[in-house]
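Reposting from the mailing list since nobody answered there.

I have sequence plus structure tokens for a pair of proteins and want to know whether others read the tokens the same way I do. The first protein:
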Amino acid sequence: QLNLLGVDDKYKRPVKYRSRIVFEWNDLDVEFDLNIVNPQNRFFTWSHTQAENSQRILQQHQEGYGLEEFYLTSGDLGEWKFNMKYYGKTSNDKAPAFIKISTYKNFGSPNQTVDIKVVRMDKQDIEQTVAKLLVN
């Protein structure tokens, strides 16, 4: 039996998030930026490029998959936009590249739902909105 004496009660309850969004790509040599725009129209960029994230890309090659996920809580209410700018591949592989976007609402609760969308990465150097998520 695990001794929980001295552990704050807040750590004993399962964590529940309003939403979770997961991005998975089939080709580890793709380079792209993901611009995440919050409800106040402020944004930050998560880069999957050799210039910005070479160690992470090396790790993905070793592990055999590419994935990034974001969790949104009750402190993140409003509409979130996820814009992607695809730069191409670092290899000469001509196979099509796709990104799978799984959007979970009420993540971690019994009424959790998931919406899955697949986007082909073929519009190079053009920023496009690939997902919108309303957190309420």
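The second protein, same order (residues first, tokens after):
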Amino acid sequence: MLNGFNGNDTLNGGLGADTLNGGDGDDVLVGGLGLFNDVLNGGNGDDIANGGDGNDILRGDDGNDTLNGDAGNDRLFGGVGDDLLNGGIGADLLYGGSSVDTLYGGAGADSLYGEAEDDFLYGDAGNDLLDGGTSNDDLDGGAGIDNLLGGSGNDILVGGAGNDVLTGGGDADYFTF
């Protein structure tokens, strides 16, 4: 386990299953090499976290964070702030959080949840689930058989290539098949 403090820290996991805690400040967290499963916690601040290979868990917490799952079946949680989440290769689970977030699923069957505020969700390749949550969201399934749920708000839903299911919600939504 590696712990940062109140400054802007850079933590590198190296080989093995690692837990990295950035703490306060704008931190850079890099998970371990190989197929080990890492846990990266950004803490407060505008953090960058890269999971690497393995099935990793990345948490941004407060701040405008960039979370990159890379390879493996990863779980990414943006938290409070305008976050950018990239699932990478694998069947990933992405939660944006309570601000304006951008989520990219990457290759694989991914599940993306925008939650609150106006979010952009892109499934990319694979059979994906995209759930915009509340507010006015922009959802694009990309290639594959996708399920897009706009939720409340005036949403834009783009199915992309594949036999997709698009569900708007209670407000004025725009559909492109």
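Reply #1 (J.P.):
I read it the same way you do. The longest strand covers residues 10-15.
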